[in-house]
DNA sequence: CTCGGTCCTTTTTTT
DNA sequence: AAGGACCGAG
């Protein structure tokens, strides 16, 4: 690819601190790739001296592929160990590599991080289960008063400010922090006992290790050229680590785009750039201002929205591209209609048949007139990307796509790795890898049932606490635990014998075979599909197959190594591997996840105040600005066509709600938008809005939903409608006190603090008059 | 001690 | 809708 002069400048300037201020799609990936290529091929810098940090695995993978291609090297799996390829990955994956390397080469006394080489990474669920255990069994506190989630938040907050348990004492200014201090201390002890670390620890432990001069020196020498992408999304520990590594040679290049900073809730701080300027006052600054992807219309819209942010460096993203189509705004009467319009547009754009609207002889306003011929019958499903604010929002869209038989896939990192069958099997693998992992041991010691119940585990725990002996040692000498019944002892022994056997297998079988061996040994398939319908059982089997499939990628490696690498990558994985790229799918994902990609046609749904921007952010100007940046990211994903939509009424959180239109829409210049409302839509039921009849009558399918609510809330006796009047204060079982602001037969609108309006059927709603 | 039923909560974004 | 917490019966 031909670089523009600015990009060229960034490419060639390799031995001085460099700040690249980038705009959306200004070709920063191409620039960075060319820069690495230039370093290696023209400046003869050894690839292993280059460190490049990206924000997501996907970005790392893509960049790795591009670089390997340009260097003529075949892409490999454990490329960290290939000296011909630069060190390239996310912060987390690179630090893990460094941690393992350091643990292998230095003594525990010197490192002082209390980790053994075969450590495992605890995810959010594992973390919560450790915290819950501490709160309940260790400190004997009320879980309701001190929820594990909240404590976890405080601890994570402390860690990201580099405050250790000991130092946390100084932070205590409230009862909750007193508790946090105690939990935090014990939590770190537990992690050490289990030879485990959580996500925050990956950064913290690396930071600690690099504080040792002898070690820092090694890595400073090795990584003389450092590049950090998405610098606006780095947090404090990340900033400190990069600063330390770059301190000696100062060959640090960062890419920064304040308009795309959307991770402050993960303690990312875009003001790190101020620190950068302080640390390297003489850094070169290069701005990449030209956008190569989107149409002028989409960009002007994105610029107009982001300009409403106060904390934002003014910039005008420009492009040579055409004006393109107008943005289309769909206001649907209900969530169902919204979803089906989206599905209809996709169906129509991807199939050679005329649209149903055309057949009815109506002008089709859904499709910009100029693109009609261009696209006729040629569109592919994979040209379409549907974005929403939260993962839970995919459901209705999925249903609509299913009805129209449009192939799609949902990208939801959690979905797969949070399933019971996957977590169970991974727990087995983790114990094989790290016998000290008590969280995993507890998870599967009774899976499938070995008659080892909570009581036995409690005894083991007590034993461990009072004698400070690790699980494996206790179990090796299980006969000495007197409290245990004989049958429990023999069950535990049998379990441990099994693990020992599996551990032996792990030195000869690659992880792919190992998983299958585990499934066979414990009769897992029979266990997991027991009492399930054939359909559900098949879905379990499919998931297991998928896991085995992922594991097959590690087949060429030495067995123990394949297990270690697999566990590590599975822990850090975010998006499902898109191996089926060649197939034709519509893709659905959250806006956050979409940050690394672009698409020809983008649908942005659920554009309603309270949803996007999220109701948690509307009273907080800082949070609101982040939502606006998120909006900017969403819009700039589109290359040619952008559709935005909202529903005037939707069923959300087990209630009918009417959300006002998203405030971001009011920030948009009118001339670029084609407002497409009900007046022109044959799909929608226009009479709905004028009707005075009960909701369930004017919208037949809602009858069924009302029945569902009835079932959910188990309301058998209905409220007496006549007792409610306008302006009555009512109490909702979970929404505090609301006021009735509109009343129409059994349908009422209630308002909370004059801002939030919910619509509900008072006959069956769980409300009480005050 | 174990099992099974019912009640209660949950949903912002992810390395 | 679904998983976890809680409780009471055997």
- The counted number of beta strands is 23
| Shape field | globular
* Structural class label: alpha/beta
Radius of gyration from CA coordinates? 29 Å
Provide a descriptive summary of the structure in words.
This protein has 770 residues and is of the alpha/beta class. Strands 11, 12, 13, 14, 15, 16, 17, 18, 19, 20, 21, 22 and 23 form a 13-stranded mixed sheet that branches. The longest helix has 20 residues, at 175-194. 40% of the residues are buried. The chain binds a DNA duplex (15 and 10 nucleotides) through residues 55-57, 90-93, 124, 143, 199-200, 202-203, 262-263, 265-266, 389-392, 413-414, 453-455, 571-574, 590-593, 614, 616-617, 626, 630, 653, 712, 734.
Topology record:
Layout: H1 5-12, E1 18-22, H2 28-41, E2 50-54, H3 57-71, E3 87-90, H4 91-105, H5 108-111, E4 120-122, H6 124-138, H7 148-160, H8 165-168, H9 175-194, E5 196-198, H10 199-210, H11 213-222, E6 225-228, H12 236-246, E7 252-256, H13 272-279, E8 284-288, E9 290-291, H14 296-306, E10 318-319, E11 327-334, H15 335-350, H16 356-359, H17 371-375, E12 384-388, H18 394-403, E13 408-410, H19 413-417, H20 420-433, H21 438-444, H22 454-467, H23 471-476, H24 486-505, H25 511-521, H26 524-529, H27 534-551, H28 559-572, E14 586-590, E15 599-604, H29 621-635, E16 638-652, E17 655-657, E18 673-676, H30 687-690, H31 695-698, H32 702-713, E19 729-732, E20 736-744, E21 747-752, E22 756-761, E23 767-769
Parallel strand pairs: 1-7, 1-8, 2-3, 2-6, 4-5, 6-7, 9-10, 11-16, 11-18, 12-14, 12-15, 13-14, 15-16
Antiparallel strand pairs: 16-17, 17-22, 19-20, 19-23, 20-21, 21-22
This protein binds a DNA duplex (15 and 10 nucleotides) through helix 4 and helix 10.
């Amino acid at each position: 690819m031909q670089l523009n002069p600015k990009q060229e400048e960034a490419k060639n300037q390799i031995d001085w601190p460099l700040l690249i201020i980038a705009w959306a799609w200004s070709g920063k990936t191409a620039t960075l790739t060319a820069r690495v290529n230039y370093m290696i091929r023209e400046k003869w810098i050894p690839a292993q001296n280059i460190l490049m940090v990206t924000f997501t695995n996907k970005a790392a993978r893509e960049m790795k592929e591009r670089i390997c291609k340009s260097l003529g090297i075949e892409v490999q799996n454990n490329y960290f160990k290939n000296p011909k390829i630069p060190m390239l990955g996310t912060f987390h994956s690179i630090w893990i590599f460094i941690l393992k390397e350091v643990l292998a080469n230095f003594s525990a006394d010197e490192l002082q991080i209390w980790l053994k080489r075969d450590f495992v990474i605890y995810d959010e669920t594992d973390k919560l289960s450790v915290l819950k255990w501490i709160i309940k069994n260790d400190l004997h506190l009320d879980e309701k008063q001190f929820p594990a989630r909240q404590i976890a938040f405080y601890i994570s907050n402390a860690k990201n400010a580099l405050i250790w348990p000991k130092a946390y004492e100084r932070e205590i200014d409230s009862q909750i922090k007193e508790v946090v201090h105690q939990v935090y201390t014990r939590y770190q002890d537990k992690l050490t006992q289990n030879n485990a670390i959580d996500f925050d620890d990956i950064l913290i432990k690396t930071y600690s290790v690099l504080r040792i001069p002898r070690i820092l020196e090694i890595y400073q020498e090795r990584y003389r050229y450092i590049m950090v992408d998405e610098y606006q999304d780095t947090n404090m520990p990340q900033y400190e680590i990069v600063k330390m590594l770059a301190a000696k040679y100062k060959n640090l290049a960062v890419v920064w785009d304040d308009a795309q900073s959307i991770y402050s809730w993960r303690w990312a701080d875009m003001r790190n750039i101020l620190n950068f300027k302080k640390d390297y006052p003489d850094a070169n600054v290069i701005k990449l201002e030209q956008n190569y992807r989107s149409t002028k219309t989409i960009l002007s819209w994105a610029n107009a929205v982001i300009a409403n942010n106060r904390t934002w460096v003014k910039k005008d993203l420009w492009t040579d591209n055409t004006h393109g189509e107008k943005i289309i705004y769909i206001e649907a009467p209900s969530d169902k209609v919204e979803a089906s319009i989206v599905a209809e547009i996709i169906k129509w754009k991807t199939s050679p048949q005329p649209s149903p609207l055309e057949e009815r002889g109506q002008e089709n306003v859904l499709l910009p007139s100029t693109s009609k011929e261009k696209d006729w019958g040629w569109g592919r499903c994979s040209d379409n990307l549907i974005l929403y604010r939260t993962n839970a929002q995919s459901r209705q869209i999925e249903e609509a796509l299913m009805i129209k038989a449009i192939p799609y896939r949902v990208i939801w990192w959690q979905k797969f790795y949070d399933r019971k069958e996957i977590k169970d099997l991974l727990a087995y693998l983790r114990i094989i890898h790290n016998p000290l992992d008590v969280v995993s041991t507890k998870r599967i010691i009774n899976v499938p049932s070995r008659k080892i119940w909570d009581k036995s585990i409690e005894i083991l725990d007590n034993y461990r606490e009072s004698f400070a002996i690790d699980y494996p040692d206790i179990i090796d000498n299980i006969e000495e635990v007197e409290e245990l019944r004989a049958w429990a002892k023999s069950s535990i022994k049998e379990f441990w014998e099994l693990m020992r056997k599996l551990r032996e297998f792990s030195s000869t079988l690659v992880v792919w075979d190992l998983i299958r061996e585990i499934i066979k040994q414990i009769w897992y398939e029979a266990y997991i599909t027991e009492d399930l319908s054939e359909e559900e059982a098949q879905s379990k089997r499919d998931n297991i197959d998928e896991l085995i499939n992922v594991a097959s990628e590690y087949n060429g490696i030495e067995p123990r190594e394949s297990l270690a690498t697999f566990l590590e990558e599975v822990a850090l994985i975010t998006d499902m591997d898109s191996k089926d790229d060649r197939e034709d799918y519509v893709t659905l994902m959250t806006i956050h996840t979409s940050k690394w990609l672009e698409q020809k046609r983008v649908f942005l749904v659920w554009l309603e105040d309270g949803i996007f921007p999220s109701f948690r952010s509307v009273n907080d100007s800082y949070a609101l600005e982040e939502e606006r940046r998120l909006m900017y990211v969403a819009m700039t994903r589109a290359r040619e066509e952008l559709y935005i939509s909202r529903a005037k009424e939707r069923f959300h959180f087990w209630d009918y709600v009417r959300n006002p239109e998203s405030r971001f829409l009011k920030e948009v210049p009118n001339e670029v938008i084609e407002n497409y409302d009900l007046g022109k839509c044959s799909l929608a039921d226009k009479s709905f809005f004028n009707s005075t009849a009960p909701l369930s009558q004017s919208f037949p399918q809602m009858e069924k939903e009302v029945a569902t609510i009835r079932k959910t809330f188990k309301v058998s006796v209905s409220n007496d409608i006549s007792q409610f009047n306008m302006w009555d204060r009512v109490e909702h079982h979970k929404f505090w006190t609301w006021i009735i602001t509109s009343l129409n037969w059994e349908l009422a609108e209630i308002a909370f603090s004059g801002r939030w309006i919910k619509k509900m059927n008072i006959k069956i709603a769980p409300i009480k008059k005050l």
